[in-house]
């Protein structure tokens, strides 16, 4: 074999080795991008995501506070929720108060400017006696809700007697800088002149005070300063929310069965209400998994 032929074969082997090396590096880089990331914003809150592109540009480019939580090599997640919950240490919460100006109206009542689902403005009357946020049909239409026939419904006691009202799940409710997720609301066709009522399905997420003299609503986090939190909520808040959904699902399931046996016209609506709360619970479970909530704060239905 000539020296030139040997040299060509050696060169071919070297080039093949280089190609395999580059491919291997590329696979490792791609694999390193998979996982769950967290970052701390300017207010000290920590956010979690499985999509690096969803981290705001100013944090992603500088990697300010960005942390990657590694998954096992070869792991594959078809959905953003890991099949086995990943637990993260909680974040020490800041006991920050939020003050909201109240708009006085007749009868000693107050209105509050509210943003629903990040896009619909509504002026709601503050009502600590209302279990849920209640909206007019007009606000419902603005939210894209137009069909109520066969929807989830609950009976409410009103001045005119028992009234069945459709239920909706608001993705977000924002007042000032206060922000909540997955908020139950009802639609009331009888409300006039205002956009609805701001009830306990929002207010119950906070410790709150109403200052009638200075016309201020003060909202405080439910957890104490320094208490660990996941996605801005303490472990006790998470446990309480799971227990709340589980209790409602059990109660409404029994009531749906009772109405069905009686041949009640609202039996199907009550069964839809059971599915409504099961769906809220699934979303809460997904949110808990992404935030790394420990199992001890979750309940099993």
Over all CA atoms, what is the radius of gyration? 26 Å
Percentage beta strand: 25-35%
Query: Could you tell me how far the N terminus lies from the C terminus, measured between alpha carbons in angstroms?
Result: 76 Å
Helix content: 25-40%
Would you kindly provide a written description of the structure presented here, covering whatever features stand out?
The protein has 301 residues and is of the alpha+beta class. It has 6 helices and 17 strands. The strands form 4 sheets. It has a 6-stranded mixed β-barrel. The protein has a 3-stranded antiparallel β-sheet with strand order 2-1-3, with no helix packed on it. Strands 4-16-17 form a 3-stranded antiparallel β-sheet. The protein starts with a helix and ends in a 10-residue tail after the last helix.
Care to give the gist of this entry?
By secondary structure, this protein is α+β, with helices and mostly antiparallel strands. Helices cover 33% and strands 29% of the residues.
What are the salient characteristics of this protein?
301 residues; alpha+beta; 3 domains; 6-stranded mixed beta barrel; 6 helices
Task: Show the helix and strand layout.
Elements: H1 3-33, E1 36-40, E2 46-49, H2 57-62, E3 67-69, E4 91-92, E5 98-101, E6 103-105, E7 109-116, E8 120-126, E9 133-135, H3 137-142, E10 153-158, E11 161-175, E12 178-187, E13 196-198, H4 200-203, E14 207-211, E15 216-220, E16 228-230, E17 233-234, H5 235-262, H6 267-291
Parallel strand pairs: 8-13, 9-12
Antiparallel strand pairs: 1-2, 1-3, 4-16, 5-15, 6-7, 7-8, 7-11, 9-13, 10-11, 11-12, 14-15, 16-17
């Amino acid at each position: 074999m000539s020296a030139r032929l040997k040299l060509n074969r050696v060169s071919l082997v070297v080039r093949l080795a280089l190609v395999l090396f580059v491919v291997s590096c590329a696979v490792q880089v791609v694999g390193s991008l998979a996982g769950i990331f967290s970052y701390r914003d300017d207010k000290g809150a920590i956010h979690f995501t499985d999509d690096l592109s969803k981290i705001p540009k100013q944090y992603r480019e500088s990697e300010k506070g960005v942390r990657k939580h590694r998954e096992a090599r070869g792991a594959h997640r078809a959905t953003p929720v890991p099949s086995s919950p990943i637990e993260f240490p909680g974040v020490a919460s800041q006991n920050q108060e939020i003050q909201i100006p109240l708009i006085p109206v007749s009868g000693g009542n107050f209105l509050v400017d509210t943003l629903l689902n990040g896009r619909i403005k509504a002026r709601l009357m503050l009502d600590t006696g209302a279990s849920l946020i209640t909206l007019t049909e007009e606000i419902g239409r603005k939210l894209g809700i137009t069909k109520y026939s066969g929807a989830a419904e609950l009976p409410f006691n009103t001045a005119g007697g028992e009234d069945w009202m459709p239920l909706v799940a608001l993705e977000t409710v924002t007042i000032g800088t206060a922000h909540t997720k997955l908020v139950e609301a009802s639609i009331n066709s009888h409300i006039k002149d205002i956009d609805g009522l701001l009830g306990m399905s929002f207010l119950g997420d906070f410790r709150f005070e109403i200052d009638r003299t200075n016309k201020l609503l003060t909202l405080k986090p439910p957890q104490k300063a320094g208490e660990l939190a996941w996605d801005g909520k303490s472990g006790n808040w998470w446990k309480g929310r799971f227990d709340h959904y589980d209790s409602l699902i059990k109660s409404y399931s029994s009531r749906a069965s009772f109405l069905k046996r009686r041949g009640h016209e609202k039996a199907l609506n009550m069964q839809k209400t059971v599915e409504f709360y099961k769906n809220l619970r699934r979303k809460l479970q997904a949110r808990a998994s992404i935030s790394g909530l420990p199992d001890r704060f979750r309940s099993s239905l």
